[in-house]
Amino acid sequence: MDGASLLDIEVLRRLLDTQYFAIDDRLLYQPVVDSTNVLAMQLAHQRPDEGVVVLTDSQTTGKGRLGRHWVDVSGCNVLLSILLRPLFPPPLLLMISSLTVVDAIAETCGVSATIKWPNDILVENRKVAGILIETSHDQTGRMVAILGIGINVNGRVQELAEQAQASLMTTATTLEAVCGHMVSRETLIAHLLHRIEMDYLALQHEYMSSSPISKEQYMPISRLMRERWRSRLSTLGRAIQVQQGNALVSGFAEDVDDNGELLLRRHSGELVSITWGDVGYPTG
Ligand code: BT5
Fold first, then answer.
1. For residue 197, how far is its CA from the centre of ligand 1 (angstroms)?
2. Protein residue closest via CA to atom 19 of ligand 1
């Protein structure tokens, strides 16, 4: 594999510009794990804090949504999970993490990515990153959210496709393939964690300080995040098909609501709210 190497954790620690996330024993690196999300969820039930980041160079059973598999080439990708205890609803977490991935990619290597609803990060219509959020509750009843992020950084698409799925040849991409040179994973992770921490703490603060009545009216940061997320969605304003299991729903992607649900105008004129599924863009 061209460009594969183990993450340099000392370099990463020096680059980190966070106050809390991944600092000291909140950074856990293992060269190989089954899934960083699984490990982070185990930790969530063993320790009371948050901002713990589980990092690896290779997953043996990387998880996608709906029981699917996330493929990686050892030593080439960003594969991490962050243990969080959000006071705000999970859709907002998906919004800030998608934005963070897009912004951190741009900051690190100047590549412009967009968001395909609900959780795909695309460059030139190919998937460069995916996000998986899994929630649970701890012993005190507080919500635990594991935010898993996978980004294809170095190496060629062919190497990814050879790992498991030939279809990735046409649907996936890597940052190196797009920008023509290798990208520092340590720098990308540092940018990612810095941005996610800022947005996360701002939202925590907003939800901690607002009363239930004022919540509906003023939530300046969450409103801003929703708007920013909406403006980065490449899904809106076009004809789409949403695969939901065996069912296919098609129509025009009109908007998203405050919960992040997709508002689809069906050909019959009816407006339906889509909560899950895989969006495809019909050709012809
Ligand atoms: C996702 O699921 O996109 C969520 C991926 C989250 C992965 C991270 S890595 C760190 C953390 N630990 C984990 O175990 N997981 C998280 P979904 O939308 O279901 O997309 C999965 C589909 O994307 C697969 O069925 C493939 O078609 C495709 N795929 C798999 N690996 C890919 C890759 N490396 N690049 C692009 N597409 C991929």
1. 23
2. 65
Q: Give the mean model confidence (pLDDT) for residues 47-58.
A: 97
Read off the pLDDT of residues 91-113 as tens digits, 9 standing for 90 and up. Answer: 999 999 999 999 999 999 999 99
Q: How many residues does the chain have?
A: 284
Ligand 1 atom with the smallest distance to the CA of 62 is 14
Report whether 17 contacts 194 (CB < 8 A): yes
Does this model's pTM top 0.85? My answer is: yes
DSSP 112-153: --EEETTTEEEETTEEEEEEEEEEEE-TTS-EEEEEEEEEE-
91/96 Cα distance (integer angstroms): 9
- Closest by CA to 88, choosing from 205, 218, 232, 233, is 205
Confidence of residue 233 (pLDDT cuts 50, 70, 90): very high
